[in-house]
Design goal:
With 436 residues, the protein is of the alpha/beta class. The protein is 32% helix and 20% strand. It has a seven-stranded parallel sheet with strand order 3-4-2-5-6-1-7, with helices on both faces. β12, α12 and β13 form a beta-alpha-beta unit.
Length: 436
């Protein structure tokens, strides 16, 4: 058994993966050729692992400089990639940089040079420009969701970044969208293309819901009643629309989270955490949530406002019917509203009068200690069971962050639990525990 195979087997075991899928196998072979690679595959098929695994073979253990640069269009995607890389347990250091947090914090972390640097275009360009990062030994450039990071708005920054990378030997571009024109400044010709976009084995059903009123809010609630207690995303085009929808759902006591660009980074992250762990079954979002985010398999999505472009429609729909699961996309249309040509309907829904979705039994706790305090998921579970007197099935998803932890618990009221566990010790640290 080769050392390479042993290392990969160990990484997959840490991630709880039995074997690579066909796309990931193809990506591994293509990236090993050292040619530029364009990887096209639907959202949710594991593209992150598809490029991270073969990337490891290109890292020189003796080098103490940044060797791999990964650029993403959003902070959440950058954070997600960093998290996957950490969970792989490679022994190599990775750092994530992005706008919206103090650049001084970046500098402190970059003082201990990472092997892999992950970030958004603006922040990466800033660090390269100011020479906070030595680019001399960066040999691999990965553009994840490149169709978004190379579009108008990012062009100037992306062009500058590529000019500031003198030693690139391989570029790897990934996307869930086809027919993207690559700008000349990317300097990629005759790439090795891997295309799994038409390889979906799941079934997405697109159903139309007719709204008798131009204001679709009542029809939205009726649709959620029709769907029942399932997990899904409601897509809006604008953050103002999200506020209206959120207020209306709150008036009808339908629990939900919100996710859009104008939110503070902390609020966006916590909304995703609570959606992942089941505290929220419903997320109201702009197209920022349509691609690349680490969110669970969902049962449905609702196009509350019709998408403006076919790419938006494709990426939204890619959030459901992923991997081996089917899903439903509901297109909400006012009866006098024109449907874009790119939307094809499989069926029209006749809403039945049902009860409102039940609130989730899960609550989310914040713990003021994380990986930097040597705290493990087992430590958190042990505290909640031994000191908090919970049973194993009352503890849900545990998410360890660098300096804090989030865990879901199945309780109607967390007050008695918090009295038992707040200000207790995890490892050597006394931690503060609150419900969020």
């Amino acid at each position: 058994m080769s050392k390479l195979y042993k290392n990969q087997k160990s990484i997959l075991e840490k991630l709880g993966i039995i074997e690579l899928n066909a796309m990931q196998e193809s990506a591994q072979k293509a990236i090993a050729t050292d040619k530029d690679v364009v990887l096209l595959s639907p959202t949710g098929t594991g593209k992150t692992l598809g490029f991270l695994l073969p990337m490891l073979q290109k890292i020189k253990a003796t080098s103490k400089s940044v060797q791999v640069l990964i650029i993403t269009p959003s902070r959440e995607l950058a954070i997600q990639i960093e998290q996957v890389f950490r969970e792989m347990g490679t022994g190599h250091k990775a750092n994530c940089v992005y706008g919206g947090r103090p650049i001084s914090k970046d500098k402190i972390e970059l003082a201990h040079t990472p092997t892999v640097l992950i970030g958004t275009p603006g922040r990466i360009a800033d660090h390269l420009r100011k020479k906070n990062v030595n680019a001399e030994n960066i040999h691999t450039l990965i553009l994840d969701e490149f169709d978004k990071s190379l579009e108008v708005g990012f062009e100037e920054e992306m062009s500058e970044i590529i000019q500031l990378l003198p030693s690139i030997k391989q570029k790897i571009l990934t996307s869930a969208t086809q027919e993207i024109d690559l700008p000349d400044f990317v300097k990629i010709k005759n790439p090795y293309e891997i295309n799994f976009l038409n390889d979906k084995k799941t079934q997405l059903t697109i159903q139309k819901v007719l709204s008798p009123d131009k204001d679709k809010l009542k029809t939205l609630v009726d649709t959620l009643c029709h769907i029942g207690n399932k997990s899904g995303i409601i897509f809006c085009n604008y953050k103002d629309s999200i506020a209206r929808v959120s207020d209306y759902l709150e008036d009808h006591e339908i629990s939900h989270g919100c996710f859009y660009g104008g939110l503070e980074q902390k609020d966006r992250e916590r909304a995703l955490i609570k959606f992942r762990n089941g505290t929220y079954n419903i997320l109201i979002a702009t197209d920022l949530a349509a691609r690349g985010l680490d969110i669970p398999e969902i049962d449905f999505l609702i196009h509350y406002q019709l998408p403006l472009k076919i790419e938006e429609f494709t990426h939204r729909n890619g959030r459901t019917a992923r991997m081996n699961n089917d899903g439903t996309a509901y297109v909400m249309q006012w009866k006098k509203e024109d449907l874009p040509e790119f939307i094809t309907i499989d069926d029209i829904v006749h809403l039945q009068q049902n009860t409102l979705p039940e609130p989730s039994p899960w609550k989310t706790l914040f713990i003021s200690g994380g990986r930097q305090d040597k705290i493990s998921k087992g430590d958190v579970l042990g505290l909640l069971i031994k000191k908090g007197q919970l049973s194993g099935n009352q503890v849900g998803v545990i998410e360890l962050k660098h300096d804090c932890t989030f865990v879901s618990v199945k309780l109607k009221n967390t007050r008695s639990l918090l009295n038992l566990v707040n200000n207790q010790r995890l490892k050597k640290k006394k931690v503060r525990i609150t419900e969020i």
